[in-house]
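Task: complex structure prediction.
Instruction: return structure tokens for all chains below.
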Amino acid sequence: MKQRNPKPQGLAYKRLPRRALILGGLQVAFVGGLAARMRFMQVDQADEYRLLAEENRINIRLIPPTRGRIYDRTGQIIGQNSPSYRIVIVREDAGDIDKVIAKLSELIPLTQDEIERAKTEMRRSAPFLPVTLADQVTWEDISKVAVNAPALPGVTPEVGSTRQYPRYEDFAHVVGYVGPVSDYDLSQIDDPEPVLHIPRFQIGKVGLEAKQEISLRGKAGAKRVEVNATGRVMRELDRQEGLAGADLQLSVDADLQQYAQARLAGESAAAVVIDCETGDIRAISSAPSFDPNLFVRGISVADYRALTNNKYRPLANKTVQGTYPPGSTFKMITAMAALEAGVISPSNTVYCPGHLKVGSRRFHCWKRGGHGTVDLETSLKRSCDVYYYDVALRVGIDRISEMARIFGLGVKHDIPMSAVAAGLAPNQEWKQRIHGQEWLVGDTANASIGQGFMLASPLQLAVMTARLATGRAVTPRLVRSMNGIEQPSGAGEALPINRNNLEQVRKAMFTVSNNRRGTAYRSRIIADEFRMAGKTGTSQVRNITKAERAAGVIRNEDLPWERRDHALFVSFAPYDNPKYAVAVVVEHGGGGSKAAAPVARDIMLQALYNGTPPLEAYPAGDRGRIKEQQKRLEGDRRPKARPDEKDRA
Amino acid sequence: MSYLEYAVKSTPSGFRKFLYMNWPLTLLLISVASAGFLMLYSVAGGSWMPWAEPQLERFGLGLTVMFIIALVPIWFWRNMSVVAYLGSIGLLIVVELFGTIGMGAQRWIDLGFMRLQPSEVMKVALVMVLAAYYDWLPAHKTSRPLWVIIPVILIVIPTFMVLRQPDLGTSILLLAAGGGLMFLAGVHWAYFAAVIAAGVGLIATVFNSRGTEWQLLKDYQFRRIDTFLDPSTDPLGAGYHITQSKIALGSGGWNGRGFMQGTQSRLNFLPEKHTDFIFTTLAEEFGFVGGITLLILYGLILIFCMVTALSTKDRFSSLVTLGIALNFFLFFAVNMSMVMGLAPVVGVPLPMVSYGGSAMLVLMAAFGIVQSAHIHRPR
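Output:
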């Protein structure tokens, strides 16, 4: 082939291959640089980026644990988790939200508030997240929504779980209630568990539910889910099951509790039944009560105001929170202190002229004319005050106070209920410390009959009675077993006292309700195997002036309710082999023998017979009246259909 | 009859031309495109729609276009250079007046069956016209100022028009490709030194203009540069793209997570996963091995182009081939630098792999010219 070269091979022509190689070399070098960068990221730093990628895509979601259930000692349910229905809406499925909500509100009642709240929530959350439109919806409304589902895109009924108390008022004060975690609750807990941040998660607010919160709550499980960039869950990777809350079995007998509650109805009162052998609290009722389910749902302002404005204070748990001057029920303690100190013997007598001059002040016996010559048995049987003024002055307050503590007064009993009060068994040191004043002999006289500074809760009185009955340091037990594990018994060790002395006091207590002249004779138990020992108490809530005493003390019936005396009665039975100790306090009920003793006797019999007692157990004269009362209470106790139950049926 | 036509009398004719095509280059292009189909299939969650199948069809069209262009003698294309350049300028004017607005920029002309980006066409046309210019220009005049100003004007006009769309990425590529071609043509070093010095000055000016009335870049462009320099300042906002891209790429590791197993792209953490950020998906699913393989394929394409360019004695053929190779290099280098966090996010797709019609079609047409130069080289 003929080669021709018509163009001159200039400088620029020679440059081309050289420059091509320079530029090509640069390009190849750059490619090498990219490769090196890729190696650095994908090989050297791969783990770091892998971690970041996992953080990106994996979310931890909590699985709320199932709350432990609460049973009574016979296995009846007291607190359970029941399905609750709510209606949720998913924005991205709903399309025109306003239209869907309008359609929905034609079917079920929706408040403007609920709609507004849901709309705000929807604006703030991702479009695929369900937002609650209506909570605590009835089954009927749920079915309406289900039937009309095709017309309601994005609207779905959902089943959740909520706490429910099938015994309503009966256990309100014992078990308390749960409610959604509030900001305040969170501020009270150090390092709150993540599960508490779940919206509407229920925690115990009051009572056992609050005190045993940790065991009842259980441990939250967790699932790891893969989410996409917008947070939508794509799939579940794995899950770690949580631990369901512990089931609690109470020592309380739901039927007895119900009876006690019904028996106290109409009064502002408290009753505690303790099993002398184990310390089990068989019944612990405070009247009036309230429906705890109202609080779970979020109580209405009107309902709440009705509860707080009630002068009988339904929200107060009078059994452990309420403290009262124990009145004459304290006399056993004074007697024990004197016997133990050896300042008296059972046969020593004191003459009661109706009053005793202590220092410059005259202390009166409740019986104006006096009891005449009184020994230990008579002093308890007829509840002579002067005897105790006299004895107490000889023993001194410190020994009385110490004896009170031995019997569980002025000591806080450790039971899982809210606001358990310690009461007060004062001594000289206490008055100096708190009031900065000398202890006066008059104070001792007052304390000897359970007045003055002396304060005790019905629970403490029941414990005291159980200890008197058994001579052992019976301690109350509310939770019998937790997840099937029996809790320690409250039987207790023998008290550091002389059995003979205790026997003298017990014998005297027997006469209170079995001797014709005993203050509680009218409330005796006839059945031989169930003979009851007890002590009445009437504690003043006002001072009786000299003028009034001269004119004649105004009868309780003539006083306004809140100035009447508290009526108290403590008892144990059977006398020979004590099974139960019962304490009853009727606020402003008048005399203990009249207002409290019959209640305590009825509850005691109910406990002893484990159900409705035969009429033969009662004194013959009372049987007609008792029969009426039994009938009436049976009627009260029959399960009532609750409005909300009808809704769900 | 030019030298070239005279010299290539011995070139093959008719369908024998197929046999003389640069087949290794063709196979490399097919391999790279196949990697693209695979990734598009993967990012669609294991589906040919909506991306893999249209891409396949367009690649078929592109291949056909390449063959047709390859069969036409290279001197025809040299003669068409000025027409192509003027036509592209015309298209840029059309898009300026009637273009479809997409992503805040005027870039496309909707042709019905596809959207044409005139700036893409311009990349090739500019290379062609500059190659033809230096083929025509006597060599001793190459570095004379007057003859340097002409190509500069040829470069600046389209660059300015593309910048107005606004498309900073493409205008920089045009500038770089044009400058590269001038360098290859043998323009004196001093000019480039001057331009680089001026460029540094310009960058300083641009940054100083920020926040003033005569601000030279849009706010979003400044933000992109900011987040490029420090993506952690705004991990969920403007820095999101870079951060997520690096995470996905880095988490691929040596072997990758496996085909269709890339969690970051599958879960939509990756933005633009089928277009500009498709390399990230590839690197996540096939790891370092997959990424380096693609990089080697790209490198081989460059090398084959260079071999073609240096083996021909025709100046136009050499320059146009090197220019197209340079264009191709700039394409993937900028894209990869971007996804690896080495460059700010500019809208540059990964050539032959990213989903998108006109870019691939134009590239295949350009490779058709390379093939034509190869077939019709003087022997």
